[in-house]
Amino acid sequence: MDTSVEMMSDSKLKAQKVNVFYAEKQALFDVSLGIDEKSVTSFIGPSGCGKSTFLRCFNRMNDVIPSCRVQGQILLDDVDLNSPKIDPVLLRARVGMVFQKPNPFPKTVYENVAYGPRIHGLAANRQEMDFIVEDSLKKAGLWKEVSDRLNDQATGLSGGQQQRLCIARAIAIGPDILLMDEPCSALDPIATSIIEELISDLQSRFTILIVTHSMQQAARVSQKTAYFHLGQLIEYGDTKGIFTRPQNEQTEAYISGKIG
Amino acid sequence: MRDNQHIVTAFDDDLLALNSSLQDLGKMAITQFELSIDALATQHQNTLDKIIKDDAKLDELEAEIHEKALEIIAVRSPLAKDLRHVLVALKVATILERTGDYARNIANRTKVIATAGNENIPGVNIGRMGQVTRDMLHDVMRAYATRDADKALDVWRRDIEVDHMHTAFYKEVLASMSRDPNVVATGAHLLFIAKNIERIGDYATGIAEQVHFLVHGAVPEDSRPKADRTSRVVGV
After folding, report:
1. Chain B residues with CB inside 8 Å of A248's CB?
2. For residue B18, is it within any domain?
3. Digit-coded pLDDT (tens) for A94-146
4. How deeply is A241 buried, as exposed, middle or buried, from its count of CB atoms within 10 A (0-12, 13-18, 19+)?
């Protein structure tokens, strides 16, 4: 496939020849692609294909795994994220992440959202913090449901509400990019639909990268889809094309349910 | 057609069943059309009645195919080639059912012609036209069965021959009608029959385009050669 740098000159995020190793085992092989700004990009592929490893390259979450080595460049607005000058904590404020299982802090709804802005000193006073919390909960489509429960424990919310709270928490510190690692895999179909609708809404403000095992979800929410297999980027292109006429036989086999 | 198998084997079974039903519908449509062309020459009443009666079987099978396709879409969420397979089956089933309708219409009109008992009707070329169209239908269903887009395109190009024959036949019938007012009623039915055959030729090209889409994910890029000039004939 064409991974030329010219092809992605306008990209918000660029991966160039990214190789990732867990100790001696190589998990990603020379992955290069460009991610459009304010779009949704899906990473799909069988378990162990490297899609989550690749997602974690964009906010240096792989740094926390001692045996993990990342080679190659990941550029955000043409700045290399792996440069020693980059502070991973500040990077993660720009690149928020939502995980497979909703993981609210054992605090109130309000405190869950306020936690990040407080650490990063984004609010000068309570009034400003109130605004950030309300704004983030509104953007995450949760405000109407929790506006009178802000001081309740977040763990008392439903699974779908907790996941949207985690999205609000990620949004609260003003990121450009949201990484979502199977954000709906623990949710029922209704909660999944609400999150998918939310992803479509958020797309106008954020660049979203999503790992999903649901082909239909990838088809529904994303404009671009990347298919990974055994650590290789097999095919990357417009989602519509990938799901109706994939160019690669391995992609065809995977999305048609022909390989395990 | 069982190439790479799905992990869920029942999915393969569903697609095979859909394919098998479509092939059955194809055979039924070809048979109905063949019989209608034969009966146009022989005016054999029992055959004509059988064609008219059997058309309901095509309608039933088409409905079954639609139901099966709906079930596959709902239960299996097909993608890529599988999705094209189901969509093409739906479209081809409709085309074949309509082919059956045209065959029945030919039979109905032949019954009227037979009742009129007109001996001086022109009809030398219509049999040949029917034969060529029947072969196109047969070959394109074969191309569908073997997923052969090249063979399908070959059929797609052959339709121009039917168009030429239709135009020639149209002029021939019009000339007969202008010479002898007694054959006007019969001639009018023959014009409709010829048009039905020409439409079945078009349907064969429609199936060919679907085979191309099934194999390559796109219909043929070139525009199809056409030569039906009957709409421009002003007199003879």
Report:
1. none
2. yes
3. 999 999 999 999 999 999 999 999 999 999 999 999 999 999 999 999 999 99
4. middle
